[in-house]
What does this fold into?
Amino acid sequence: MRAFVTRDLPAPALDRIRNVAEVDVWPEPGPPPAAALRERVRDADGLLCLLTDLVDEALLACAPRLRVVSQMAVGVDNIDLAACARRGIVVGNTPGVLTETTADLAFALLMAAARRLGEAERLLRSGGWGSWSPLFLAGSDIHHATLGIVGMGRIGFEMARRARGFEMRILYTSPRPCPDAERDVHARRVTLNELLQESDFVSLHCPLTPATRGLIGAHELAAMKPTAVLVNAARGAVVDQRALFEALRDRRIAAAGLDVYESEPLPMDDPLLTLGNVVLAPHIGSASVATRIRMAMIAADNLVAGLQGRPLQYAVAMP
Ligand code: DGY
It folds into this structure.
């Protein structure tokens, strides 16, 4: 059997795959270009990919032997699940292991944006620190503020647990009620509009689906408080990025903390880069060494199971 792995992985993960298959690993630090990916999957029985690799109908058409796609991420919006299902290809992902690490980063973005840490550091480094003065770099309080969580899944729930440590009041929206969050962190389920109007911080934790693409646009940003902070560590396309830029530029909301973008890497001429009131991270939500190793191991195990025709431990529900 043959497997194509689209990026170098920690050695134990690759060894696990090598026990059952001949492994071809993309040697470069960036993702394989579409043509190279098509070429490399031609003889592959299994594909281990990242969220930067587009697995669509065109790619699958070049991979007649493929029986498993194992994604090293929880989000699978880069994979055409319906096309995989039509071909009998199973798809795996890595939920659970990155939940707390991603919530840590989302909370860090919330704090950095609220307390203007990016601006503060840039100012200090550029010699702009004059003296202590009453409203110098004054931001917003986090403790006792209201946090609105859009998408009370695993990561949203962990975000809420962190917020409780700051005695925040928690609102959430979700397609279904989350009794655990209501019991454990006293979260209250409200409509998106209520959440936007009442929250001091709005944090996005929903997957990118046709229903959530562009969920936060000009209309939703206009419903937020002018003092509010938006945090996005989910997927960039959940937010209309142009509308967000305009809302931040015109101070219709106070600040944002972003880890994800409509287009990644964020182009260096993106207008968001001209703003002081946004903290920008390069999609590092799950980037702790321990979590990335765990993700790689699960992705390897899913791949091996698929190659051997066994059920995947973390199989994505197919449409
Ligand atoms: C995921 O797993 O979907 C994350 O975005 C990776 O950090």
